[in-house]
């Protein structure tokens, strides 16, 4: 699972270590394997040196160059000011040819296949030039309809058209509002309201597993100002539109007759200008609106470049959605490194997806653990050739060791790069690295330039070489991390109450980390009451608000999630206190809660267990102690697994 020295020198990170290592580390530098920790520690102390090197490796072109890499003179900005004075359009960087990395007009930008197409037919391809022309066509239509700075939402599967729309919105100087296509109308409405979106792109239907599910009708239920509707198939939408809405064909019609349809002048903006609003659930019930700036794609791309070794010649596939942070990360990680983006328009759960991975020649495949478990249990990829895959990546949930071993075996036991980060970081702060010995389901290192400590219950950092469990504290100088929130106080959320370390106010992330004797890191859950269900972060408060109203017998509920003892996705357990005089069966409540949660929050969430108890454990100030309930369930599962 660890590269040998010779192979390590051929990787993206290994090449720059060989070039710059002797100069930066002197005689201490040996090779990328032996000197990995030394080099990574150097990037923490001197992030400006590392980023000056990395910017030359990515397809990032400045309209006006930065005055410097990092300015720390403004003490009101604990994260520093990155690339001050620079002006660019990051979407244009994605679309233009470049010498290094080598991207040419006839390079394959995207490869895709629609679910239901003949699996023996050729995959579809679009070149960089064709992609640029399509993006410009949409950008012209946007420029005619909206004003620079307008927020425009996307709520649809991650198709080729969704990618084109995403890039066009940014090219035109507008802001993408990311909404997952699995959300209920209420959740869509919240995100449209918080972002002040002027319009939303969506499809008439979604096709999954051969079945059609309405999407436009769900979006309309959220009362958006204007909807641009794409057909899931063919040229015409299959639904009746509201008067203020418009079909994709009509939206583009004007520009098809435009004198210069293939010309568009990008909106060049300061590097800290907002390009994308994503959402992450806090514990207050309303999702935090997290703005990505043009720094965010640089950070996210650099992580894939350095740790997953994504670059020219790679075909990168990761079943995801532009409504989740992994969607934009995947998009930029391809177009800013010269890799080809691979998209399957359909469900990733069946053999059709596996056949696409084979036929597209995917070299890097990203997953979530629940997806791997499904592939393994259904044996749907049996007989397929995945041996072009040089590495896997995994995020979103705790991995299962047995499932990881099975997945790795599908390509001669290639490594699985575990990634753990956050929307507000635009990246992973801990990773697995092929430069180090690996353990399935664990992380071997913090990412490049990332400093962190693990805090004890008093907020005091443990020594870096000590096995321990505690809340993580991140060093604040972190290129690409947020410096603002749209609907919450950024300082209160990420810095207030955090201890100082070596003169720095640590940044809160909220994960509880366990560092093992061998130095590996395992994520043990959240310090707050945020939970991770199937790779989707939500809060206990959101779940409880829905469950409290689900049945007249309920006095109050408490939602907790726990990871099974043998690993795998977290399971959702609802504790219930009934009103006096009421009786109710746990199994009946389980059905009621599941239906209510799927209707009001997310159709992918499911309740695994319901426990009725007489009262909840509380602090002296009456604060609910979900941790005690979580520990109770964890203990029961542990005992059961040993029986």
Automatic annotation (TrEMBL):
<dbReference type="InterPro" id="IPR020845">
    <property type="entry name" value="AMP-binding_CS"/>
</dbReference>
<dbReference type="Pfam" id="PF13193">
    <property type="entry name" value="AMP-binding_C"/>
</dbReference>
<keyword id="KW-0472">Membrane</keyword>
<feature type="domain" description="AMP-binding enzyme C-terminal">
    <location>
        <begin position="554"/>
        <end position="623"/>
    </location>
</feature>
<keyword id="KW-1133">Transmembrane helix</keyword>
<keyword id="KW-0812">Transmembrane</keyword>
<feature type="transmembrane region" description="Helical">
    <location>
        <begin position="322"/>
        <end position="344"/>
    </location>
</feature>
<dbReference type="InterPro" id="IPR025110">
    <property type="entry name" value="AMP-bd_C"/>
</dbReference>
<feature type="transmembrane region" description="Helical">
    <location>
        <begin position="163"/>
        <end position="185"/>
    </location>
</feature>
<dbReference type="InterPro" id="IPR042099">
    <property type="entry name" value="ANL_N_sf"/>
</dbReference>
<feature type="domain" description="AMP-dependent synthetase/ligase">
    <location>
        <begin position="108"/>
        <end position="472"/>
    </location>
</feature>
<protein>
    <recommendedName>
        <fullName>AMP-dependent synthetase/ligase domain-containing protein</fullName>
    </recommendedName>
</protein>
<dbReference type="InterPro" id="IPR045851">
    <property type="entry name" value="AMP-bd_C_sf"/>
</dbReference>
<dbReference type="Pfam" id="PF00501">
    <property type="entry name" value="AMP-binding"/>
</dbReference>
<dbReference type="InterPro" id="IPR000873">
    <property type="entry name" value="AMP-dep_synth/lig_dom"/>
</dbReference>
């Amino acid at each position: 699972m660890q590269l040998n020295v010779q192979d390590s020198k051929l990787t993206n990170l290994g090449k720059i270590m060989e070039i710059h290592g002797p100069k930066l580390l002197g005689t201490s530098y040996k090779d990328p394997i032996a000197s990995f920790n030394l080099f990574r520690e150097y990037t923490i102390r001197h992030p400006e040196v590392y980023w000056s090197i990395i910017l030359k490796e990515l397809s990032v072109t400045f309209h006006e160059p930065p005055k410097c890499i990092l300015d720390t003179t403004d003490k009101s900005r604990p994260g520093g000011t990155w690339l001050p004075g620079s002006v660019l359009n990051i979407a244009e960087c994605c679309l233009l040819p470049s010498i290094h990395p080598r991207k040419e007009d006839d390079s394959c930008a995207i490869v895709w296949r629609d679910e239901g197409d003949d699996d023996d037919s050729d995959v579809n391809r679009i070149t960089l030039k064709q992609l640029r022309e399509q993006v410009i066509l949409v950008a012209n239509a946007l420029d005619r309809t909206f004003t620079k700075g307008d927020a425009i939402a996307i709520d649809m599967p991650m198709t080729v058209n969704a990618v084109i729309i995403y890039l066009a919105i940014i090219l035109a100087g507008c802001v993408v509002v990311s909404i997952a296509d699995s959300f209920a109308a209420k959740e869509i409405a919240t995100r449209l309201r918080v972002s002040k979106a002027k319009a939303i792109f969506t499809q008439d239907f979604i096709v999954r597993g051969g079945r059609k599910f309405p999407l436009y009708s769900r979006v309309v239920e959220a009362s958006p100002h204007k909807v641009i509707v794409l057909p899931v198939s063919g040229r015409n939408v299959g639904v009746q539109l509201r008067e203020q809405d418009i079909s994709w064909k009509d939206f583009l019609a004007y520009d098809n007759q435009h004198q210069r349809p293939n010309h568009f002048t990008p909106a060049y903006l300061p590097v800290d200008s907002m390009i994308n609003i994503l959402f992450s659930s806090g514990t207050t019930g309303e999702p935090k609106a997290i703005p990505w700036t043009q720094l965010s794609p640089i950070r996210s791309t650099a992580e894939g470049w350095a740790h997953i070794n994504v670059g020219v010649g790679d075909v990168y596939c990761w079943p995801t959605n532009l409504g989740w942070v992994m969607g934009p990360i995947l998009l930029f990680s391809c177009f800013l490194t010269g890799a080809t983006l691979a998209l399957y328009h359909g469900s990733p759960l069946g053999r059709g997806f596996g056949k696409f991975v084979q036929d597209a020649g995917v070299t890097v495949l990203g997953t979530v653990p629940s997806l791997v478990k499904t592939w393994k249990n259904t044996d749907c990829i049996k007989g397929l050739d995945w041996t072009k895959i040089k590495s896997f990546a995994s995020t979103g949930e705790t991995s299962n060791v047995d499932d990881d071993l099975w997945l790795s075996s599908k390509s001669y036991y290639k490594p699985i790069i575990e990634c753990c980060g956050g929307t507000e970081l635009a990246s992973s702060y801990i990773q697995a690295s092929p430069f180090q010995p690996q353990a399935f389901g664990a992380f071997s290192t913090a990412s490049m330039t990332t400093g962190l400590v693990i805090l004890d219950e008093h907020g005091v950092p443990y020594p870096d070489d000590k096995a321990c469990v505690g809340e993580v504290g991140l060093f604040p100088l972190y290129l690409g991390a947020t410096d603002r929130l749209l609907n919450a106080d950024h300082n209160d959320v990420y810095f207030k109450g955090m201890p100082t370390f070596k003169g720095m106010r640590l940044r809160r992330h909220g994960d509880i980390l366990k560092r093992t004797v061998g130095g590996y890191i395992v994520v043990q859950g959240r310090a707050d009451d945020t939970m991770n269900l199937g790779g989707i972060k939500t809060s206990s408060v959101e779940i409880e608000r829905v469950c409290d109203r689900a049945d007249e017998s309920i006095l109050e509920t408490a939602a907790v999630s726990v990871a099974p003892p043998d690993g795998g996705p977290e399971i959702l357990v609802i504790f219930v206190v009934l009103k006096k005089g009421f009786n109710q069966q746990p199994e009946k409540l389980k059905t009621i809660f599941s239906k209510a949660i799927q209707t009001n929050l997310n159709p992918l969430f499911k309740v695994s267990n319901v426990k009725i108890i007489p009262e909840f454990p509380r602090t002296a100030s009456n604060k609910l102690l979900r941790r005690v309930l979580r520990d109770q369930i964890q203990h029961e599962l542990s005992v059961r697994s040993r029986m």
